Amino acid sequence: MKSLVTRAALCVLTLTISVPTVPLLAQETKPPTPAEKKAEDDKKPKVTEEMVVTARKREETVQEVPISVAAPTESQLRDRGAETLEDVSANVAGFTVQNLGPGQSQVAMRGVSAGQIVRDQPGVKEQVGVYLDESVISLSLFTPDIDLFDMSRIEVLRGPQGTLFGSGSLSGTVRYISNQPKLGVSETIGEFSGSSISGGSIGGSLKVATNAALSPTAAMRFAGYYTRYGGFVDAVQPNLSVNKDVNDGSRTGGRLSFLFKPDDKLSVTPRILYQKVSMNGWNREDAFNILANPYTTTRPKVNLGEREQFTQFKEPFNDKFLLGDVNVSYNLGGGRTFTSITSYSDRNVDVLRDATALTASITGGSIGLGPAVYTLNAPLDDATKAKSLTEEVRLSGATNKLQWVGGAFYSHTDRKYGQSLLVSGFEDLAKIGSTKGSFGA
Q1: CB neighbourhood size of 416 (10 A)
Q2: Which range marks the domain in which residue 89 is found?
Q3: b or e along 12-50 (b: 16 or more beta carbons within 10 Å of the residue's beta carbon)?
Q4: How many separate domains does the chain show?
Q5: Gap between the Cα atoms of 89 and 66, Å rounded
Q6: Which of 175, 201, 228 is the C-terminal boundary of a domain?
Q7: Residue 421: CATH number of its domain
Q8: I need a labelling partner for 273 at 20 to 30 A (CA). Which of 35, 145, 160, 222 fits?
Q9: What is the pLDDT of residues 106-148, one digit of tens each?
Q10: Span 389-424, pLDDT tens digits
């Protein structure tokens, strides 16, 4: 033991004597270059930021959730330039979006979807549920295309989610998680962008969000956005003229939410959202011209090139979406929380298509009426009006060994769908043609 203590003492003494030489060495050392510093930083272990999700109606890390979840954060969405669900799907395995334009998307999870987008079909139920925070916003074949600006993250839950979500969540659920009002914080953020499409028109966006502290127990948050979409599809007309970039359009919307938190137990968050999507045409390229083929020769042959279609008039798409909801949460103590979510949505979708090829194949082909009849514009109008009221209440709790949640869900939807094909002047011209025989020549 004595020799061990002696060696220790000698060691300490040696270190003490050598210490004064250290500053001299440090003064002679050159600082690392930026390249050397970066190389050294790259060798250091990277600390991964903990990602919190609410896939099971409670805050958990992704590692704790026993289901397949992808949750790109706000910063990740911004770095990728993501503005729509289609942009999100590009980096999420098993999640695809068929997009015919803003507001005209169909979501598929693991290859399961409701079918091809043709027009709104009231009898077809969506297979992927879409939520904005706690409120259901999915509608059959037209998934609301909410702007991703001021979103905390997008949660993509792969696989059946009927136990906690329902509302068409047969193959999965997509959740927009928005930034909530913050108490005691006043901040404003904004962004703008511009774009130009090769062979198309220009676009751009302007977005702003602000958070205001109204009092020590109340706060407000507003996010507004406007996006102009450039067109890139040209429409060949019957006289062989070309309308350029017919699929341009715009998206305008805003979200206004409040937070009232009188104490540590109760929080009330009312919100209203409005969005309008207007498109002047479809992202469609006609590979086959039905108006000029061996079986339906009601037009001169038209050779369509890349990013071209044949129409007689504009085919606009308009989608107006209004959502109001209230989220009430109360901490009962003992790890138990009561939550109530009440939401009301009103959505109007109007789709206009050029059905002249369809009517001309009958009036000009089968019946044999003349050009004055079969060249009449035939607008096919699909209109959907949907109003939905939902209420969800749940009680959740947790102990050291058990986490549980129970609740009830009520939904009432009033949905009206109509389709019309009004060919102005058809009856008069057809009647004249049948009596005078002047349209068969």
Answers
A1: 11
A2: 52-175
A3: eeeeeeeeeeeeeeeeeeeeeeeeeeeeeeeeeeeeeee
A4: 2
A5: 21
A6: 175
A7: 2.40.170.20
A8: 160
A9: 788 877 765 555 555 555 667 788 899 999 888 766 777 889 9
A10: 999 999 999 888 888 889 998 989 898 888 888 877
